[in-house]
């Protein structure tokens, strides 16, 4: 099922959240304890602890975390940021996840359409100021969409880039003031491939077309075999992250 961003904004006010102090205390209490736990157990703990105030975010590169969650947290919200610049394959993967998995896919959109952003900032902002473009189309919409949650899960893995080496399994996201859960933080590339093969998990078809890391089409390039999987993101610039995980 796919819900709209407006529908999600209403649901967020249905239950009161914990204070930042309470959330930080939870992280301090269980963070180290869950560090070596299986991914399903980590998600199960988060769902039991936060209930409907826990969600998954997905960029629809694959549905590994959604698949794990559907087993132990059926019906869980899966938040997808539609920047307006996604490949058709990414939107298709989102639709396939929504149609076939026991999760609640919620599509969040930026305040401005691409046309409105072009009118205010000029066309192709991604070429001139990708940090501002990401702030407007990714960082701010995600921050707003997480208002109704105390905790969010990502598919972040330490093996992906050196910037992600220290991603804790359960950590405190000081900027968003949320508990950030990375259930597959310890997984290697081989772990991911094995889980996908063993469980028939949905994968964005671009992954098999030399796009190991998939973002917006203007900022994503194919990667040569053996190169850093994220080297196709913002290729030719110093930018390596959109800002969501910083
Ligand atoms: S990845 Fe590129 S197109 Fe997408 S929001 Fe960032 S700068 Fe804009």
TrEMBL record:
What does UniProt list as catalytic?
242
Keyword list (alphabetical) reads: Cytoplasm, Iron, Iron-sulfur, Metal-binding, Oxidoreductase
* GO MF annotations in UniProt: 4 iron, 4 sulfur cluster binding; adenylyl-sulfate reductase (thioredoxin) activity; metal ion binding; phosphoadenylyl-sulfate reductase (thioredoxin) activity
Pathway stated in the Swiss-Prot or TrEMBL entry: Sulfur metabolism; hydrogen sulfide biosynthesis; sulfite from sulfate
- The residues listed in the UniProt record as binding [4Fe-4S] cluster, with positions renumbered to this chain, are 133-134, 216, 219
Give the E.C. number(s).
Answer: 1.8.4.10
Catalysed conversion reaction: [thioredoxin]-disulfide + sulfite + AMP + 2 H(+) = adenosine 5'-phosphosulfate + [thioredoxin]-dithiol
Q: Where is this region: Disordered?
A: 1-20
The protein here is known as Adenosine 5'-phosphosulfate reductase
| Record gene name | cysH
């Amino acid at each position: 099922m796919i819900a709209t961003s407006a529908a999600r904004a209403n649901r967020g006010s249905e239950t009161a959240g914990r204070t930042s102090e309470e959330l930080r205390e939870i992280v301090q209490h269980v963070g180290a304890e869950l560090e070596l736990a299986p991914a399903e157990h980590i998600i199960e703990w988060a769902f039991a602890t936060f209930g409907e105030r826990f969600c998954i975010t997905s960029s629809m590169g694959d549905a590994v975390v959604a698949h794990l969650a559907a087993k132990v947290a059926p019906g869980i919200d899966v938040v997808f940021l539609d920047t307006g610049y996604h490949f058709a394959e990414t939107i298709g993967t989102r639709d396939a996840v929504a149609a076939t998995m026991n999760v609640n896919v919620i599509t969040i959109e930026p305040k401005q359409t691409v046309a409105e952003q072009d009118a205010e900032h000029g066309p192709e902002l991604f070429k001139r100021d990708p940090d501002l473009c990401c702030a407007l189309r990714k960082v701010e919409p995600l921050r707003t969409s997480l208002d109704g949650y105390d905790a969010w899960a990502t598919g972040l893995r330490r093996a992906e880039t050196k910037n992600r080496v220290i991603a804790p399994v359960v950590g405190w996201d000081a900027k968003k003031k949320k508990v950030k859960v990375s259930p597959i933080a310890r997984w290697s590339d081989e772990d991911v491939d094995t889980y996908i093969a063993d469980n028939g998990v949905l994968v964005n078809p671009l992954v098999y077309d030399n796009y190991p890391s998939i973002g917006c089409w203007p900022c994503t390039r194919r990667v040569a075999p053996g190169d850093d999987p994220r080297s196709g993101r913002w290729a030719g610039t110093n930018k390596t992250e959109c800002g969501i995980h910083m």
